[in-house]
């Protein structure tokens, strides 16, 4: 005698797999939107919406500093999440790095948030750095 599978559990299984795939795709890369006065970056559940006039410093960094992760994940060469720097525990650090092997943009927003960011395409990251540099001025950037 063959036992009939219940359609409800099949549906739950399919929805679970679909939800996991959507979450993986949403975190697989950084999505950016540039407006005249702000930078918006979305990477899964992590969102940075920064008015350009509040950016205090902007620079290239080769490596991420040693920090403790509050939440987030690492996979292959990706690093995403919210971190705490032991030197400044009051200032959150948001890391949205698509490729740890490539240079990253480090910016400080109003001395209340640090952001490390790069995109899968290094030329796109360089163009984003240039876009930010053009809007905030050379006095806040360092090479």
CATH architecture: Roll
The CATH class label is Mainly Beta
Strand percentage lies at: 35-45%
Integer average pLDDT: 88
Count of helical regions: 2
Please, could you describe this protein's structure?
The chain is built from 2 helices and 10 strands; from the N terminus they run H-E-E-E-E-E-E-E-E-E-H-E. The chain has helices spanning 7-27, 122-136; strands spanning 31-34, 38-43, 46-51, 55-61, 68-75, 78-84, 92-97, 104-109, 113-118, 141-142. A hairpin with a 3-residue loop joins strand 1 and strand 2. The longest helix has 21 residues, at 7-27. The radius of gyration is 19 Å and the shape is elongated. It starts with 6 loop residues before the first helix and ends with a strand. The model has no long low-confidence stretch (mean pLDDT 88).
Care to give the gist of this entry?
The chain is α+β, with helices and mostly antiparallel strands and 143 residues long. The protein has helices spanning 7-27, 122-136, and strands spanning 31-34, 38-43, 46-51, 55-61, 68-75, 78-84, 92-97, 104-109, 113-118, 141-142. The mean pLDDT is 88.
List the helices and strands and how they pair.
Layout: H1 7-27, E1 31-34, E2 38-43, E3 46-51, E4 55-61, E5 68-75, E6 78-84, E7 92-97, E8 104-109, E9 113-118, H2 122-136, E10 141-142
Parallel strand pairs: 4-10, 7-9
Antiparallel strand pairs: 1-2, 2-3, 4-8, 5-6, 6-7, 8-9
């Amino acid at each position: 005698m063959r036992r009939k599978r219940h359609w409800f559990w099949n549906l739950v299984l399919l929805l679970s797999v679909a939800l996991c795939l959507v979450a993986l795709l949403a975190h697989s890369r950084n999505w950016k939107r540039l407006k005249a006065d702000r930078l918006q970056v979305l990477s899964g559940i992590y969102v940075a919406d920064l008015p350009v006039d509040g950016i205090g410093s902007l620079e290239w960094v080769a490596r991420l500093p040693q920090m403790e992760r509050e939440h987030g994940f690492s996979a292959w060469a990706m690093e995403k999440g919210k971190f705490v720097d032991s030197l400044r525990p009051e200032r959150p650090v948001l890391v949205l790095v698509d490729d740890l092997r490539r240079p990253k943009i480090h910016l400080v927003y109003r001395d209340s948030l640090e952001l490390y960011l790069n995109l899968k395409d290094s030329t796109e990251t360089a163009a984003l750095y240039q876009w930010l540099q053009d809007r905030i001025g050379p006095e806040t950037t360092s090479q």
